[in-house]
Amino acid sequence: MATIVNTTEEEPMLAVVRFTAELAWADAGPEVADPEVTRLCLEAQEHILAGRWLDMASLMLASADLLLTPPSRVPDKDLECVLSVICSLVTKAGSEDQALQITDLICDKLTQQPDDKPALRLKVLFSLYNLLPSPYFKALVYKKALELATAGKAAEYIIPSFKNIDSFVNEWGIGNLEQRELYLAITRILKDHKGMTKDYFKFLNKYLATFKGSDDDSATIGDAKEEAVAAIIEFVKSSNLFQCDLLNMPAVAQLEKDEKYQLVYELLKIFLTKRLDSYLEFQTANSALLKDYGLVHEECITKMRLISLLDLSSCCSIEIPYSAITESLQINDDEVEQWIVKAIAFKILDCKVDQLNQTVIVSRQTERIFGMPQWQGLHTKLGVWKGNIASAINTIQANKVTEEDTQAMHGLTIH
């Protein structure tokens, strides 16, 4: 029998090959198993000495195939250790192209049976991710992890990473189309995951925002209709969302002339630009549509009353009479303060109630749409504040000079 000469540096790789080979040939008996194990170990040693890391990866993954085929006879801890050693091969690759080939081999092997030990497979993929020097490779591995989490129904293991997506995208330097694919994959994971409605809406927005309305998008923007509708329904349903940019997105605007979805777009316009009376008129004519999308009429009324209050705060002077609120919200006089308290609780309105004069004095309100007019209004306010501050500083300086002159004159009088 040939003797295996191990080097300290490569010992883990040879140990993995020996371990997997012995496991693979365990049922064949020592007469058959020993020569095969020795052969594989010699082949592995030759690859190591020659620096053929791609061949080494192929050999190790082929030997480890038994470990990844259910039912596995290897404890998860040992399996993770074996796969981690295989992943370390990417750090030894002599070129980026070779590292990419090794990465592809590992990813393909790990994603072949996503239903078996998906949590462990994802853990190994993220270990591989952390070993890769190239941001582009990292993006590829993360995409594979998304696919594995989806196919293996293991979303809970990858969802925590979504909070870092913005920094990931910046690090990876991926283009608009790749970002679109990424955001779409994430929305599909979050769609049916309980308690993730806010994040689902956030990534729907990110996905839809990748459509700029350019000629490059003309062939694909129609694919975004379903997600555009989903985003609209999520906004209307949400009890704590009062502002969004959907209306001006090309992927959403295409619905305005779409025979199937134009009413959904009209509903969005009502919630972002109109008041309760417009919603009630729409509901009367389209109650079946609202039910089809799971919208509850009473909840829509509540939201539209708060939105109408915001619209009053935006359109009127800083003082809103109770009478305007009762008319717009279609409520009684004794309900005004109740709705003011609700708006304050949702942090969409800052105001004071003047019960004596039956007015509400508004200091801040959430804008439903924050576009160019809102930016211009903010610019004007900042200009006024800047002027007021400058005036206050000039007054303070003038008073200081007057006080110093007075003190100086008083000193002369004493002498």
Automatic annotation (TrEMBL):
Positions in coiled-coil regions: none
UniProt key word Cytoplasm: yes
Keyword Cytoplasm (UniProt): yes
Q: GO cellular-component terms in the record?
A: eukaryotic 43S preinitiation complex; eukaryotic 48S preinitiation complex; eukaryotic translation initiation factor 3 complex, eIF3m
Query: Which branch of life, at top level?
Result: Eukaryota
- Keyword terms of this UniProt record: Cytoplasm, Initiation factor, Protein biosynthesis
Q: Which GO terms describe its molecular function?
A: translation initiation factor activity
Q: Name one GO biological process term.
A: formation of cytoplasmic translation initiation complex
Q: What is its main location?
A: cytoplasm
Domain PCI: start-end pairs = 199-367
As for subcellular location, the record says: Cytoplasm
Q: What quaternary arrangement does the UniProt entry report?
A: Component of the eukaryotic translation initiation factor 3 (eIF-3) complex.
Q: What protein family is recorded?
A: Belongs to the CSN7/EIF3M family. CSN7 subfamily.
Task: State its role.
Answer: Component of the eukaryotic translation initiation factor 3 (eIF-3) complex, which is involved in protein synthesis of a specialized repertoire of mRNAs and, together with other initiation factors, stimulates binding of mRNA and methionyl-tRNAi to the 40S ribosome. The eIF-3 complex specifically targets and initiates translation of a subset of mRNAs involved in cell proliferation.
What is the name listed in the Swiss-Prot or TrEMBL entry for this protein?
Eukaryotic translation initiation factor 3 subunit M
The species this protein was found in: Panicum virgatum (Blackwell switchgrass)
